[in-house]
Specification:
The protein has 2 domains: 89 residues; 233 residues, 2-Layer Sandwich (BirA Bifunctional Protein, domain 2). It is 41% helix and 19% strand. It is built from 12 helices and 9 strands. The strands form 2 sheets. The chain has a 7-stranded mixed sheet with strand order 1-4-5-9-8-7-6, sandwiched between helices. A two-stranded antiparallel ribbon has the order 2-3. Strand 6 and strand 7 form a beta hairpin. Helix 1 packs parallel to helix 4, helix 2 packs antiparallel against helix 4 and helix 5 packs across helix 10. The longest helix is centred in the N-terminal third of the chain and has 38 residues. The protein is elongated. The structure holds phenylalanine.
Amino acid sequence: MKNKLESIREESLRAIREAADLSGLDALRVQYLGKKGSLSAVLKQLGSLSAEERPQIGQMANVIRASIEDALKARTEALQSALLERKLQEEAVDVTIPGKKVELGARHPLQIVWDECVDIFIGMGFQVAEGPEIELSEYDFDRLNIPEGHTVREWTDTFYITEDEKVHLRCQTSPVQVRVMEKQTPPIRIVSPGRVFRKDEIDATHSPMFHQMEGLVVDKGITMGDLKGTLNVMLKRLYGPDTVTRFRPHHFPFTEPSCEVDVQCFECHGEGCRVCKGEGWIEVLGAGMVHPRVLAGCGIDPEEYSGFAFGVGLERLAMRRFSISDLRLMFENDVRFLRQFS
Ligand code: PHE
């Protein structure tokens, strides 16, 4: 039995010394010290020994157990520190390698103007509202007081989605007015930037897809003075404090009265030049007092409330702002163009 124990000691200590990893080491612990391990197997036979042999062998077994435990502990520590060493080496950072350049993109000129417009209105207490690009004709036409037979409803102007003319790609952001008013009770102050679609041939000033920002204010006692004051703030913020504006009577079915707003040409200051095509003024947006019929159609009493609305073309703002002469540049995504705005 002594021999047996001796060989267990030799074998186990060698195996432990040679163990390659922690899980192998754990298997050895079970193999030698476990309940069903080799040492236990020997100890189970103690009963068959003589009274004087028993304590000797028992003591020897205890010493061996202790040395196996020590060996396991030492090998565990060695493997752990080797592991840590390897990890530290693998994860080492060579601070002498030149850094990677971060290629930062640029905001699209349209996005710059979009963000700027939204910021101006958020500063005046407006909220941003959203509406679908695929819109019901009910919202884009009927409830905006645009009658059957109006030219914008024609198939040559509008991208219909359904044969029955009930669904189309919205041709303006104005349906968002209706969507907001039918849900929200005044006071209402929202802007809604987004994409709109019209069947226009592509050229330097036209695109079948472009962007507008709608604005809507409804409350008690809102007047044309509020409209003018608010839009003047926006245009002066965009074009500078000396910007001169002009409100010119116009017609939109969903506002009454309606106007178009021009800014005096920044190039010739009203004299007339190439930039303003000899006009002295550049048209920038459409606006007006929300038509009582539109208010009533959304469940808002026009006797109690009034409001103003406006719609501004974002491409046109961006083109003026950055002196971009051709609208197509905006959508071609040529990096040589886009890079100029970083
Ligand atoms: N929706 C109009 C257009 O696309 C602009 C507009 C909006 C006019 C709101 C008045 C009020 O031309």
